[in-house]
Design goal:
The structure is a single chain. By secondary structure, the protein is of the alpha+beta class. The chain has one domain: Sandwich (Jelly Rolls), CATH 2.60.120. It has helices spanning 3-15, 18-28, 43-51, 80-88, 92-102, 237-256; strands at 34-37, 60-63, 67-72, 117-121, 126-131, 142-150, 163-166, 175-177, 183-188, 194-197, 206-215, 229-230. Strands 1, 2, 3, 4, 5, 6, 7, 8, 9, 10, 11 and 12 form a twelve-stranded antiparallel sheet that branches. The radius of gyration is 18 Å and the shape is globular. The model has no long low-confidence stretch (mean pLDDT 96).
Length: 271
């Protein structure tokens, strides 16, 4: 299947539940706006997609205090179905369907896949609480929505790997959204959208397709530029202190060097 055909399926599924999804998003907007929808694609297609994920040896391992996972944005090294599904989320009809739900018209996808693409996580992997970088790779437009499509069949809640939203920071309560098979989660990204992935407690592999949407205007008019900033999980004061210092240092560097000292590496380098 080609991305335009897949986009029609996604847009149709979203449009069939517009009112319910809009209600869910609006109720969460005072904290971190989000909605999710299950059975996004036909079951057979979603299962086929899962089988297309590559061996982790072909991906980049990120293992730091911030995160522990395998990632890739180089989609032409993957099965073509993975690339077609990923870019289907950037087709205009899908963006329009999501735009209608969230009430924001000036959004667009990112064909460079800056910090997007695919991820694979298994036993012991995690993503600590963090704020995503506020802008695109060139620092021209605002990052406004994070799209996470989960494609691991029979993934159980007790296996971990759930998306955690922290609207009041890591000192407050979190909202947990299970990374259920064939579920799409769309969350707003702003200066307040702290989120994380709970540690994996299974030897199964949690697979995810990630996209970001950008806009000339931020979700919250009070938002300011910020680098990707991590915190330690509740109860881990050592990691928290180190990660907060790391974020402060990188923020200072960006005030001096507008685009940073090191060129970003996680984006689609098209041949």
């Amino acid at each position: 299947m080609m991305r335009k055909d897949i986009a029609k399926l996604i847009a149709g599924r979203l449009s069939s539940s517009t009112d319910d999804l809009t209600d869910l998003y609006n109720k969460s907007c005072s904290d971190i706006g989000y909605f999710y929808i299950d059975d996004l694609l036909p079951d057979a297609l979603a299962k086929r997609l899962y089988s297309c994920f590559p061996d982790v040896s072909t991906l980049t391992l990120k293992k730091t205090r911030r995160e522990f996972k395998f990632v890739s944005a180089q989609m032409d090294n993957c099965d073509s179905l993975l690339e077609e599904v990923l870019f289907a989320f950037q087709e205009r009809e899908v963006i329009d369907a999501i735009s209608l739900i969230v009430g924001k018209a000036d959004i667009h996808g990112d064909d460079k896949l800056y910090a997007g693409g695919i991820s694979m996580m298994s036993d012991g992997h995690y993503l600590n609480p963090h704020l995503d970088n506020s802008h695109d790779m060139e620092r021209n437009v605002w990052r406004v929505f994070n799209l996470l499509y989960y494609v691991s069949p029979k993934w159980e809640f007790l296996s971990g790997g759930s998306l955690e939203l922290w609207p009041n920071g890591v000192e407050g309560e979190s909202t947990t959204i299970q990374s259920k098979f064939n579920r799409l989660v769309v969350m707003a990204t702003s200066n307040n959208s702290w989120h994380s992935v709970s540690p994996i407690t299974s030897d199964k592999v949690r697979t995810c397709i990630s996209n970001y949407y950008f806009s000339p205007t931020p979700i919250d008019t009070r938002d300011k530029f910020h680098v990707t900033s991590f915190r330690g999980r509740p109860g881990n004061s050592v990691d928290d202190l180190i990660l907060r210092g790391d974020a402060l240092a990188r923020s200072f560097i960006r005030t001096v060097f507008h685009k940073g000292l090191i060129k970003p590496s996680h984006f689609y380098k098209k041949k």
